[in-house]
Amino acid sequence: MRIAKLETFHADGGWRVWSFLKVTTDDGLVGWSEYAEGFGAGGVSEIIAKFALLVTGQDPRSIGKLSSQLRGVTRLAQGGLNHQAIAAIENACLDIKAKAAGVPVCALFGGPFRDKLPVYWSHCASFRVWRRDFFEQKLGMRPIRTLDDVTELGREATARGFTAIKTNPLNLWPQSKPFSSGFRMGPNMLDRHPDDAAISEMREVIAAFRKGVGPHTGIMFDINFNQRPEGFLRIARALEEFNLAWFEIDIHDPDALAYVRQQVRTPIASLEAIHGLGNYRPFFEKRAIDVAVVDVPWNGLWESVRIATLADAFEVDCAPHNFYGDLASLMSAHFCAAIPNFRIMELEVDDVPWKSELVTKAPVVEDGQFIVPTAPGWGADINEDALRKYAVKGA
Known about the structure:
The chain has 2 domains: 3-103, 2-Layer Sandwich (Enolase-like, domain 1), CATH 3.30.390; 108-389, TIM Barrel, CATH 3.20.20. The protein has helices at residues 44-55, 63-73, 80-101, 126-130, 132-135, 147-159, 196-213, 229-238, 254-263, 277-285, 296-299, 301-313, 326-337, 384-389, and strands spanning 3-12, 17-25, 30-35, 116-122, 164-167, 218-224, 246-249, 268-270, 291-294, 317-320, 345-348, 365-366, 369-371. By secondary structure, it is of the alpha/beta class. α1 (44-55) crosses α3, α2 (63-73) packs antiparallel against α3 and α8 (229-238) packs parallel to α9. A 6-stranded parallel β-sheet has the order 5-6-7-8-9-10. It is built from 14 helices and 13 strands. The longest helix is centred in the N-terminal third of the chain and has 22 residues, at 80-101.
């Protein structure tokens, strides 16, 4: 069996673009992966096309060899877009290998450790507030305009079986300072310092969610790269009374992140923006996090399992960064099922109604639990008719 062709596709996600890689072998077996083209300046698809010249003719089942070779030839510019392109190829080849063996992908790594995965409602209220033009006007979702609306959404989450939700600064009011994640151009992108009014609004939003979900449902709060250590500390301390399941932040400095963790009582989750096993290591050695967030489309599932193994040696749990479409959710589910130190799985709930049309079998979520697929490969392929229906010319 040899790799014959690599093709990339881009589908309309309404407020974003979903990108997919199709790897076809000389005997007609097909492997799929989902990857991210919309972060930074883009360019992952172009790198995949260049890597295609290197991997065509190789055995797709030799996952470790393929990935190691590609990391070797990019060693002078490792990480970033190169790493993400390698991960896309790695993931598609894992789909092929599992299909050829007639097993689900997680079985290649000793799984499944579990057949049901607790999930949390990610960006709960966030996108409905940030992108009212789309979620309200185009999708017709219930508006989130007041703290009472936030409370009601919390009640809805628990009624639907979710045992945890994650939200962000919402900026509900006209006088609110627009939230900046710290990695997108826009107002306040460079103003990474504390703001008393913003911290007060964060407290009000979390209090409203706590009122809605009750005392036992987990609440995660994510502010990305929004602050420097001083600001992260002030916010974490201001929210301690709400008993957060975790406070999710991003810092590329292991010592700075460890400092924040040592100063607060709330569990710290981080590292979704880190690429590769070696770059995770100093964060574990510094005891910088309670939950390591691992992006499977960015790192590749083989590399992600290696990261989780290292985390396990330091008694650290892992959770996937799953900010994508349904194929990526299946990929993340196999990661969660393949490791013993799984915490909880991220899931985008507010999304376009055609999301599941793009896969041949939609993921199943029952009572807040994601059912791990048992079919060979990821458990579903990409529906190429839907790809054509929702195609976009570029990412």
